[in-house]
């Protein structure tokens, strides 16, 4: 879908900034809306990677485009940030029968009419309820998604997803009391990505050791790279419910083949 819609940009004039639809000012889309933020120094022509980010509960997309740990990462990395607005400042991620997946698809379609996008770099992320919505979206409509970058939120690990992104990256704190860390049987700490490990037919977990962006928070990484399809990465930290400093930017750097930097 996204690959076809990228052609629409060349048939339509650039609209987003001209119509005042940018940053804090939402782009209307039927009876709903979304926010968009361009990266620093964009030349107005080069196709852009896209990060579709779902906000947390009781928030809206304007928070996302002003969030240093989200927008701060995309602005410095040449990535177009897209932040849909949930109905009632929330998301319906509980089951496959949700209008929010179709809405997010329409958001990406609209973005592809407004901007030249790179169909090989479509990333989907979210935090808290938004993290769960990001899981739901790629579960139902993720075949064209390059990577899921989820923070502290997921759907049930027993779900059967008809679609999937090319790669999954998830981070969660074991002391999270809002969207509790989903320990598996016997306290299994790899269970937060069990759905994708099964979907991708992954076998061996490879510990990659500890890493950190800030000295006060250490993350432990486990990867599954022997999958029949895709790849799965899980970062765990001992903290609570938050977006770790630099985590989103770190993933974008690694996925683009760059040496990760902060911010």
Automatic annotation (TrEMBL):
Give the InterPro entries listed for this entry: AB_hydrolase_fold, Plant_Biomass_Hydrol_Est
Statement: the UniProt record of this protein carries the keyword Cell membrane: no
Task: Write down the Gene3D superfamilies for this protein, in alphabetical order.
Answer: alpha/beta hydrolase
> Which UniProt key words apply to this protein?
Hydrolase, Signal
Question: Tell me, what is one Gene Ontology molecular-function annotation carried by this entry?
Answer: hydrolase activity
Instruction: Kindly indicate whether the keyword Cell cycle belongs to this entry.
Output: no
SUPFAM superfamilies named in the record: alpha/beta-Hydrolases
Q: According to the UniProt entry, where is the signal peptide?
A: 1-18
> What's the name of the protein?
Alpha/beta hydrolase family protein
* Source organism per UniProt: Ruegeria meonggei
